[in-house]
Amino acid sequence: MRKQMKRILTMAAAVAVMIVLGGCTGNTGEETVQPESNLTVESNTTEGSTTTAENTDKTIQEGEAVYGGSIVVGIQNDLDSLDPHLAGSAGTSEVLFNIFEGLVKPNSEGELIPAVASDYKISEDGMCYTFTLRDQVKFHNGEPVTIEDVIYSVKRCAGMLEDQTEPLVSAYSVIAEIRTPDEKTIELVLSEADTELIGYLTEAILPEGYENQASAPIGCGPFRFVSYAPQQSFVMERFEEYWGERPYLDRVEFRIAANTDSAMMELKAGTIDIYPYLTSDQANELSGQYEILIGTSNLVQALFLNNAAEPFQDVRVRQALCYAIDAQEIMDMVADGYGTEIGSNMFPAFGKYYKDLSEYYSVDLNKAKELLAQAGYPNGFEMTITVPSNYQFHIDTAQVIVEQLKQIGVNAKIELVEWASWYSDVYRGREFQSTIVGLDADLAPKALLKRYGSEVKNNFIGFSDSEYDTVLEEALRTVDDQIKVNNYHRLQEILTEQAASVFIQDAAVLIALNPELGGYTFYPVYVQDMSQVYYRK
Question: d(Cα 388, Cα 422) in Å, to the nearest integer?
Fold first, then answer.
């Protein structure tokens, strides 16, 4: 069984047969092989150590890059909020990444580097985070970023403002006190040790007192907001007073594609410059017109099962589906074999925190039928797979699964819904039987595992297990990294043993790129970073 996908990034030639995960997230120049990445998710700095970033302009080599120009980037989701603290969709975060910055931000290597902060340190006991604010950082309205703005933004995420009753970002609930020894230093004192909080401090710093974030957002990132037309487009332009490296492009439009067919029409017409959600067939069609880049999605794609709905309240039914569904066949059928099979709710980029459980359920149709009979379904049952209609890759995956489940007497039908309906009814409302999507994560392993705690709001599949809750609590509390690793491995094992869902793959991702462009960069989190993209001279 092919365990590791080929991670080749190329901007020199078109690729003939490849794939992408339609759902959620480079090198330039010569063809290279990208090694396995390891996210820096524990303390990126320790007491006494310092991380800095320089404010320098990019060096342009003759014949390589020029400043100026505008591009159109195709995206598949409308934005669910222009306020970064309220946005819930990964498709929204990929766009707003260009507008906002937090105390820290991720780079393409999976490291958290200073942003609004010029450096930071984490106490050895994981109880205090200290940040030094960078000089001359400005908001897009021209006002300087002050320590009051930082305090306001942290308090807002933590639910500490007077008009709030709960955190906007659950990870911030551990913040007990905010101290300011001077006007350039801020200390976050925690109520309990948390060495992974740094992975969430990418949340945007917003201007205190500004009340129009939902309609006219103001951040301090490399691009500034210009306009937004629901279901149509989001437009931004270069922010000339950005503290860091100056973006090459003058203007970027994120154009919202109603579906994959409309996106392909625009691609063939040449009216979209970048499109990050190709299927292998689409890549073949476009290979003579666009350069095709291949990266890794760093997502968990799964057939997510509603554990609170019949018949998936019975673990034996869930296990039967795990024995019946062949992830490798799915990758072969819809991805030409590309992808990394996974067996739980984590992907390999998390390095030591990831446990490979992909072979826990080897395909065994007889075992699947036996489990169904034990659960009272000797002749199988009918089920519905709800899939967002704008993600062709998930639709193709569902079609393969439908055929695989027929072998054990399970008749599945696919229900296509618009993304907004999926988000409100399936994810928020939990009104579904099963669904196929990809889950992303912040730069912290708990982001993928905490969501299955019994009382967690984003546990949209309704999974509940007492051992899981106990191990999760210990994993979140400990500052001993080896204990944390062991706990995270056990959490993944529980999800697999209990067949919380049918975990399929961390898929490859294909990008169509206008051959006049360079600089497109893959990240270990789901973003579309336009600050690195340029026109070739």
Answer: 6
